[in-house]
Amino acid sequence: MAAPDNRSTGWKPGQCFLRSSIPQDLSGWLLDTASLTLRLQRLCPGKFQVRVLSQAWGVPRIDEARVLEMKPGRLAIIRQVQLLCDGEPWVYARTVIPATSLRGRLRRLAHLGTRPLGGMLFSDPGMRRASVELVRLDAGQPLYRDATREFDKCPAQIWGRRAVFRLAKRPLLVSEIFLPAFPAGTGPRPAWLDVQIKL
After folding, report:
1. Are 91 and 179 in contact (CB under 8 A)?
2. Rounded CA gap, 199 and 194, in Å?
3. Are 60 and 76 in contact (CB under 8 A)?
4. What per-residue confidence (pLDDT) applies to 187?
5. Which among 110, 99, 80 has a CA at the least distance from the CA of 174?
């Protein structure tokens, strides 16, 4: 089992970013509180699908373990997928599910296959989501490499968001990175965005 790369990624609460520092065409996606999967399905004019890159037991990165309140070295299922429209990757998603969360009916989270996690999360009436954190990833950072490993050419920076979800009070962490092919600017900019982000 490979050791996690624990170099700092730079996740911060959304309200800590200056309005001018977030790409305007992505702001409505990064801070949206609805299901990203559902929005992508509505946006995709053709076939939407989930491509599983990997799913295995592993040790989360330090920043992931911290927000999940996991003790260092504890195991979790780490699931990496791409969300595609007509075969083109739009979003890279990394989900960390602590072993302690895989109990009772939540054991199904370990057997999603190509089913989107978002549909399950947002259909659960007991689901609770923490505040969204944002990140600007630079080329060379571990998460940037994970997200763009299948691309020949990528911009110097890409953006993502993450949040802790709780089902039956048990946590899991979902990180979503917007890839170069994503049609940014196609989603509406929420009116509350200018209030939430510091001027």
Report:
1. yes
2. 8
3. yes
4. 55
5. 80
